Amino acid sequence: MAERGSPDGEARRTLALATQLKMARLRVTRSRLQLLSLLSEGRRHLSADDILTEMRSQGEPLSRATVYNTLGALVSRGLLMVTDAGPGRTLYEIFDHWHHHFVCQKCGVILDVPCVVGENPCLLPDQIDAEVDTAQVIFRGRCRACAERDAHG
Amino acid sequence: MAERGSPDGEARRTLALATQLKMARLRVTRSRLQLLSLLSEGRRHLSADDILTEMRSQGEPLSRATVYNTLGALVSRGLLMVTDAGPGRTLYEIFDHWHHHFVCQKCGVILDVPCVVGENPCLLPDQIDAEVDTAQVIFRGRCRACAERDAHG
DNA sequence: TTATCTGCAAACGCTTTGCATCGGA
DNA sequence: TCCGATGCAAAGCGTTTGCAGATAA
After folding, report:
1. Nucleotide showing the shortest C1' distance to residue A26 CA
2. Strands A130-143 and B46-47, sheet pairing
3. Residue A146, pLDDT score
């Protein structure tokens, strides 16, 4: 965690990402490495368009289709987690642990919400006559900043 | 609950729906009555397109825009509940009680999941530094039928 | 009468697809 | 070498919008 930014650290991080891709039986390409790198270091919860814009601004001349292809591949191999934060708001992040999300209805900020029982959600799956694999919880409301702005305004 | 289908029951049901609309400060129009009626009696969890197709097949010559306008109005007044069952899968149902949803990843069927603590979800809202209004939980997996088909096939 | 709803069609935003080219293994 | 990834552009899908005409209150 200390070598962020040093040439050595850069190389080591890239190697680690390449290894991840190989383990997922995916070819190691520039765009995949950069996409993973972007999601690893920066802000979480990026949209496909955020990613396209960000990567292009970093000098990577990739196409929109490649972003979607890559995201799809990485999600299906479990390297990325996709969250449906509302109509037309599909967000991607590195999958490192199970968690849920809070979406502020005012400013749109996304907060991670810890998942108390690991992968399992709140409600008891035995209430459902089905085999439950995953549970996605989305909380909606006002974040602290927006709530205070409303109260003092 | 006995007069389903009898002329009297029809009229009474329509009157009830009209009252609902008036209480929500919405004008009583044919398309709104029929939309509410469709969602009240038939299958729950209909998409905007399902609704358009269904209502047109019942002889109501309404437009796509009206369906979306009406759904939006009814949702904003709390008469309908909208669920995001996946990318491009927005489903509408009469709002009668808080509950969550299970989505079968094989056949796409939607099951209602009771909400054990009323409006409150599983995870403790005090873990979030925000004011939580709602929580939407979506369980994914295989429904009983699909699970058994897989096991026996 | 008037604010509101409806219909139509066009536009919109996000995502997927087809196909030729490029490139990692 | 060869399968898979990329780029480009076009199409697809669900949804929204603008405006003229209809209609509930």
Report:
1. D4
2. unpaired
3. 93
